[in-house]
Every structure is written in C-alpha cells, then in structure tokens.
Amino acid sequence: MTSARVGKQQDGPAADAAGAPGAHQGEGYQRGLGARQIQMIAIGGAIGTGLFLGAGKAIAKAGPSLILAYAIAGLVIFFIMRALGELLMYRPVSGSFSEYAREFVGPFAGYVTGWTYWLFWVVTGITEVTAAAEYMTYWFDIPQWVSALVFTLILYGVNLISVKVFGELEFWFSMVKVTAIIGMILICAGILTLGFSDAGDTASVSHLWSDGGFFPKGVGGTLMTLQIVMFAFLAVELVGVTAGESKDPEKTLPKAINTVPWRIAVFYVGALIMILSVVPWTQFQPGVSPFVAAFEKMGLAAGAGIVNFVVLTAALSSCNSGMYSTGRMLRDLALNGQGPRFFTRLTRSGTPLVGTTFSAALMMVGVWINYQWPGEAFDYVVSFATISGMWAWIMILVCQIRYRAKADRGELPGSSFRAPGAPWTSVFSLAFIGMVIVMMGIDKDARVSLYCAPVWALIMFVSYQVLKSRNPDAFDRTPVQGAAAPRD
Hints:
Keywords: Amino-acid transport, Cell membrane, Membrane, Transmembrane, Transmembrane helix, Transport. This protein is mainly alpha-helical. It has a single domain (37-469), classed as Amino acid/polyamine transporter I, CATH 1.20.1740.10. Helix content is 67%, strand content 1%. It is globular and about 70 Å long.
C-alpha cells in the first residue's frame, strides 16, 4: 500500500503556521511506518551490543546484583520514555528532541541538541559498521574494510528508497534479536526444570546468591556498572524520531512506549536471571558475550556462531538507525535556519537525500580512520557517543517539565498521553542521570567520555555565535517544522 503524504508543501506564513504547536503537517515526509514496524523499532532500540557483549564486563564487576541495576535503570528509562510520549502527543514531529528543546529551553538548546544527537548517531554508526565488519571475519577471511564498505552502501541505499523499506529492514533486524533472547530464556528455563544439556547437573537459581551473595562486589560495585547499564539502553528514544513518519502516531507511539517495562523485564532482567542461574557469575569475563559463555557451558557447539550472527544483526540494526536519524536531525536543523539549507532536500519518496548522504559519507571516513589508526584516538571519539546520547535524555526530561508547567497553567494544550507521576518522575530521572555522570567521572575507563564533552560544547558555542551573527532571525523565530523543501 502506498504511504499517505503528510500535508502539502508550504511557503511563507502558511509554512510558519505548520510549525505551530500541535501542528505537524507539511514536514514533507511520508507516513510510511505502521504499528508493526513502530513496535519492533521500539523493541529493537532497547536491545543492542550493549546487552549481547557489554553485559559480560558488567557481570564481572557486579555479579548477580547487575539484575537490580538493570531493573532500576529500566524504571528510569520508562520515566524518560513516558516524558517523551507526553511531548510527542502534544506535537508529533520528526525532529522531536531538538524541536522541543528549541521551544521549551531556547534556540541554543535546540541547536546543541540537534547537532549532538546527529553526532551521536554518526559516531555510533562508525563503531557499529566497523564492529559488523569484524564479526564477518568469524566466517570469512576477507579484509575488514571491504565488509564495512558493503554494509555502509547497502544501508545507505535502503534509507534512500523509502521510510517503509527502512522500517521493514529494522523490523526483521529486531525480530532476530528478540527471537535470540526469547530462545535463550526458553532453553535456560528448560535446563533449570528438566536438567538437560551439560549444564543440567549444576544449573540452579541458587547461583544468584550462593557465590559471594547477591552483592559479591558490594553496593559500590553495582553502582559502578550503572554507566554500562545506561549505555545499553541508548537508542531506546529512537521511536521519537519516527513520530513524523508514523501512520497513526496518536495510537502507535503510546502503545510502543507503554511496552517499555515488559521489554526491559523480559529482555534484560529475565534474560540475566536465566543466564546467571545456569552459569555462575564467576565464570563470566569482560569482553566475552554472556550468551556465548552460556551456550558453551550448555555444550551447544553452534552457540558461538548463533550469537555472532545475532550480534552482527544488532550492529547493522544500530547503523541502520543511525542512517535514518542523522538525515532527519540535519533536515530539522536546516528547516529552522540552524544548518545549511541544502539539508532540507527530499527525494520524491520523502527521504532526506543530502542529510543522509552527508552522514553516510562521514561514516565511511570513520571506517577508513579506524582502518588506518585503530588505536586510542579512535577510542576517545567512540567514548563520546555515550555522553552525547544521554544529552538527548536530559533534554527530553527538562522539556517535559517545562511543557507540563505551561499546560497546567493553560498556556498550551494538554497532552493526551500524560506521564504518570510527572514532573517528580522527571526530576528523579534527571538526578539519576546526574549520578551516572558522576560515576563516569570516578571510573577511569569511562572518564574519557567527559573529557570530550567540553570540547564539543566549545565547538557548539562558537558555531552558534557565528551562525547567529550571520542570520539572527533564524534563532529568534518560532520553530518552523514544515517549511518548504525542494524535492529531487
């Protein structure tokens, strides 16, 4: 079925009216993402290499108490997503994070949020496509750069065809990840109840407390894993970027957001409970996927290959999401005069041609840099992705608090999807994120992320002042989501 186009292209005052609160016509995008795709994008956004690979390091640091860390962090993520949902139902637009920051905090906040989220996905795309190329060497003896080039070109082409094709590819990427985790949970449940496989004789839920207790590294060890845990949830907010291209955002987005609790309960808490019941936490090592370790303990020889395929899928899914979101964020900035005008260009199928092409080109440069200098300099750039991703969460929470205050005073229309417990849940979430940032400063392995932040902030401040001096009207006007854009 052909996607319905959103509104009509507008110029002048009419276009400005399209950017008024509550309006989202005229963005030029197609409503090509259905409920099935939105649901799987929301599910897949919470499942990535942070779970499949990063959990091994976190288990070694905290032991079984990592389960509690994921549960608490998952609650905070739900608060963040409900805050985002309230904003989305107030005004569902494709450049949601920067649009809300621009409206409720100020032009500079919108500028920083848009460019920071764009950088987050560019850096993430670089790392993920490089990781995918490394995973390919498990089966094929081919140069890493060849795989990276092929993957980048394929995902770039997919994102230029139409948003519907992107959604379909992301649907199947997410399906692979979900199936793998559910399969692991069912296998572990079978081992615990029926006792089959090599792990059947030793598997027991008592592993959760018998090897040094539930907090074998102390509460401090658990707190030090919070940054790893929160990083694993990065990209869960991607569903907000799809708002401008959802067929029925008023129904599909709230439904997708409300599934966050059970997604976290099943895919993180449930999976860890099962794995740590079958395999004692002392047998996990940093850098080794807990899923691979569990399969080996069960005596399933094909386990490593299966997990390698799943992790490859997770990496490609993340890169695919990066291709999608970067083009939208650049176009949103350009529509509001905070980026080059040529980024507003759309293809006839409603995809941001120039923005996606520019971002993909940078991802290609990143692959080349990683090939030439795979040392610490590249690792420093990669580490910045984590702190930049959390900036989007901070802006979501701040904007929701300010929006709720204005809505309660009758200055703005109320949202049909109010966040429960807000604004106190948003305040609590901000405090929690603040604590995670403090923990990052204490942890020498994560501290490098904070070193990069002031450099980027300086770049943003200087570039903002330059652009504002050249075009002050672009930073003083009401946000315009829906200005006319050329088509190819």
